[in-house]
Amino acid sequence: MTEQSQRFSLAGKVVLITGASSGIGAHLAQVAATAGARVVLAARRVERLAELAARLADQGGEALAVPLDVTDRASVEAAFDAAQARFGVVDVVLNNAGIGQGQRALELSEDDWRAMLATNLDGVWRVAQCAAQRLVQADRPGSIVNIASMLGLRVGMGYSHYCTAKAGVVQLSKALALELARKRIRVNAIAPGYFITEMTGGYFDSEQGRKYVHDAIPMRRLGELSELDGPFLLLASEAGAFMTGSVLAVDGGQLVNNL
Ligand code: NAI
Q1: Is 0.90 surpassed by the pTM of this model?
Q2: Buried b or exposed e, range 138-155, using 16+ CB within 10 angstroms
Q3: 3-class DSSP state for residue 184?
Q4: Which of 70, 80, 133, 197 is deepest in the core (most CB within 10 A)?
């Protein structure tokens, strides 16, 4: 390994990924394992996590599947306890779990609003705080990577609750970066544009979806999950050692589209 590639390595690190049962989380779990991390796969659908853990083990990696509901403090603490018991203190967290059902503002119910904020904002806060408390207690450095969204920086029809939660994730990342810098814990966010996952579903296969991609995304295409690998490894590893409080857009230029 060259000195340069070594900086992006996660060898010896314990990386906990929330929402690792599908989409971006499952993909980046594989990336973290390939980069040498011991990976803690955390989500509600434990059977899926167990399959992924077995796949990573077959490839020579080390992974642990733990049940996690980010809306529940006891569940978050239990997931970190399990991670710590198996691998030691978690060094890197990918705060990725999220939900994304759209609903126009006039039709949003109290429950829809609360569920969105509870998962996409409160959950990120809870996991980040739990990780940081344990790092400080162990006097260890760490990195927290929060998955925000370009909808945390701009807005979209039918997503007032989602945009609000993701804007909260952007601000939370910066505020935690400030408070935790002297504790050697970095906090950064990634703001993805559109990637095909369970969350985006079949929309982009439709005529309307294809037209949207053509008109709204300067690169005129969706993201490939592998295009998140570099930003994630940069923020998670020593390569990003002087980065904290940053928000990396990975969106084919959508945030700079023509107004
Ligand atoms: P996904 O639906 O495949 O993954 C979300 C994961 O979070 C699932 O595994 C789900 O089970 C888990 N999750 C939901 N609620 C949870 C809870 N209470 N506790 C634990 N796990 C929970 O979708 P995707 O696209 O992989 O989403 C990952 C993150 O990326 C989300 O935060 C999403 O908002 C964000 N994002 C996705 C974009 C895309 O185009 N796919 C664009 C911008 C942001």
Answers
A1: yes
A2: eeeebbbbbbbbbbbbee
A3: coil
A4: 70
Strand 185-192: give its sheet, edge to edge.
Answer: 62-67, 38-43, 14-18, 92-95, 142-147, 185-192, 247-250
Q: Which of 47-56, 163-172, 195-204, 221-230 has the lowest mean pLDDT?
A: 195-204
Query: Which of 138, 101, 121 is CA-nearest to residue 189?
Result: 121
Q: Tell me which residue has its CA closest to atom 2 in ligand 1.
A: 199
Please determine, for residue 204, whether its predicted confidence score (pLDDT) is greater than 90: yes
Q: Evaluate if residue 174 carries a pLDDT over 90.
A: yes
Q: Are 192 and 154 in contact (CB under 8 A)?
A: no
Gap from CA of 147 to ligand 1 centroid (Å):
9
| pLDDT for residue 1 | 78
Ligand 1 pocket, residues with Cβ under 6 angstroms: 18-19, 21-25, 43-45, 68-71, 96-100, 119, 123, 147, 149, 192, 194-195, 197-200
* 189 bridge partner residues: 146, 247
| CA 144 – ligand 1 centroid, Å | 17
DSSP tally for the chain: helices H, then strands E: 9, 7
Which of 179, 176, 199 has its CA nearest to residue 188? 176
The CA distances from residue 66 to 10, 57, 74, 126, 206, in Å, are: 20, 15, 13, 17, 36
Supply 154's token pair: 């701009």
Query: What backbone torsions phi and psi does residue 117 show, to the nearest 5 degrees?
Result: -65, -40
Is residue 4 predicted with pLDDT exceeding 90?
A: no
Identify residue 155 by its one-letter amino acid code.
V
